[in-house]
Amino acid sequence: MNADLFLLIYACLKAFLPLPSIEAVFVPLCLAAPTKSFYYAVVSGIGTFLGGYIGYELSVSYGRKVALKLVNEETLSEGEAAMQKYGAMAVILGSLTPFPDFVLAYLAGLCRMNRWLFLLLDGGCRFMRSLLVAATLSKASEFIAIEKYSTLLSILILVYFLGKYVIRKKT
């Protein structure tokens, strides 16, 4: 499977399943091919949009039942309260930060947030976040020979995100 398709599928799945952050795949790809960083940001944005749609629809169709398979009741209740209180701002802030994006899709569906508003905000903000990461890596490659250390950096990033994921799953 080529890297572009893998990134698209991973970004889509990450948007509605509790997988390690998209940066675990996106950053190593950008480091390996800095000239394709902005292209990877677009692919990541498309995947996130599609995955957000799937998560939203699952939540609307199956309600709390499907969300509780992924998070506990306390987390879900806190998230619903925040979503109802802050609405679109919660989606914007959650999408621009490393907040687990799969939670946003389910919360938006459970709270019956306008589907298109959610998709526009979530997909748009996650796309902007990917663009920012791509721009940062691109700029850094002008000053640092990133490609010289890209394999090591990629392994460190993957270990970090996978470790963080495993630790979070154990607690």
UniProtKB/TrEMBL annotation:
Coiled coil: none annotated. The chain crosses the membrane at residues 6-31, 38-56, 86-109, 149-167. Residues 38-135 form the VTT domain. The keyword RNA-binding does not apply. Keywords: Membrane, Transmembrane, Transmembrane helix. InterPro entries: DedA_domain, VTT_dom. Signal peptide: none annotated. Pfam families: VTT_dom. One of its GO terms (cellular component) is plasma membrane. Belongs to the DedA family. PANTHER family: ALKALINE PHOSPHATASE LIKE PROTEIN (PTHR42709), DEDA FAMILY PROTEIN (PTHR42709:SF11). This is Membrane protein YqaA with SNARE-associated domain. It comes from Dielma fastidiosa.
